[in-house]
Amino acid sequence: MAHEKQRLNYVLFLIAGAGLVNVARAMTLSFLAIKLQQTFGLGPAMIGMLLGIGPLVGAVAAPFAGSLSDKVGRKTVLTLTLLSMALAMVGMGVAETVIAFCIAQVVAAVAVAINEPVSRALMSDVCPEPLRLKYFSWRYMAINFGFAVGPLIGIAAGAASTTLFVIAGIVYALFALALYMLKVPVQLSEAEQASAPKISVLQSIKMAIHDPRLAFFVGGGTMLVAVYGQWSATLAPYLAGNIAGGVEIFAYIVSINGAVVLIGNPFARRFIEHAGALNALVTGCLLFLVGELGFLASSGLWGLAISMVIFTIGEILVVPSEYMLVDGISNDRNRGSYFGAHSFSTVGNFVGPAFGGLMLGAFGGPGMFLLFAGFSIVSAILFAIGTRMPPPKASVELAPAAASSGAVGPHLRGAYA
């Protein structure tokens, strides 16, 4: 009982840390475009290109970092990642040239990409399986709290100011120190360590990539991220150019999105527990579809607001469900590799704005919203196929725990209902 309490306290520490570092992240990285424009005088095209390099590199680096965390430990990788983020934040704050700023920004983007899968894997390691959905849901809410509060702090303190970047760097460094000092309250037993297959990081990545279930999850996840990951980047120009008072309406829409996430998250968790992860994810995809069609059909604040409520409910169903599905096909020895490989789906953050922007320019709102509606349906199909596929033979041989029925948690078994 005492050990389980210790584990849950550590999970709460990770959740609180996720909220804190995302406040620091949101109060600085939200204003990178403004800093590049005001400090260095760059145009929109160059800003977009420079800000796109880092996340793309991070999407490639994350699978390697996830597999490395399986070998050397999550805490080690996560601590180094947070320290790198701290240095990058300070570097962006004091940079006096575009080159210096961009180097620091790339380091920060790669660190963000690595932090997410490794921290999720560490949380799964520590959190008892029956409680994972609950605490994953709390973590998602803490992150959204950070992104709700962070930009307000950034605006109040002066958007893109050097002081904010330095403060954010200190926050990351302090969390890294706390993480390093606290002992992870769970680890593989000596018998499990002795029986674990001795494979390299590259072999671990290869195993994850060759799991057909994960391949479908990455494909579906990429399309989901394209729909919800950067929705503001495509919805904002549409509203500004096509709806009267579109800029003001967009501000309300952003607030509605944040409010629905914070209020609806507990109800979404209960629905996922009752319906199962796959059924909840498919429901979320259908709500994305309805939301996109609602944006297309709306011409004023009320229609757009209702559509955003529907869209956001889809988001709070999809995000925890996706994490639980990935967790359900992994085990203690390969969880970092699986979450790392799955994080490649963050390339959807570029697919969405890039293809959405092209469709908006070529065909207007109907082309863009119908594209995202189509992404939602295809994503649901990919996840449904992936969930029902058997594990690869290599996984059975090298990671028997993953192939056993006990490795598939209740959230995944419920998804078949």
Structural features, described:
The protein has 417 residues and is mostly helical. The chain folds into 2 domains: 2-187, Growth Hormone, Chain: A; 201-416, Growth Hormone, Chain: A, CATH 1.20.1250. Helices cover 83% and strands 0% of the residues. The chain contains 19 helices and no strands. α10 packs across α16 (348-387) and α11 (231-242) packs antiparallel against α12. It is globular. Mean pLDDT is 82; it is low at 188-199 and 395-417.
CATH top level of the largest domain is Mainly Alpha
Distance between the termini: 32 Å
Helix-strand category: mainly alpha
User: What do the pLDDT scores average to?
Assistant: 82
Mind telling me the C-alpha Rg? 21 Å
Beta-strand percent range: under 5%
Give the number of helices: 19
The percent range for helix content is over 70%
The major β-sheet equals: none
In N-to-C order, the SSE pattern is HHHHHHHHHHHHHHHHHHH
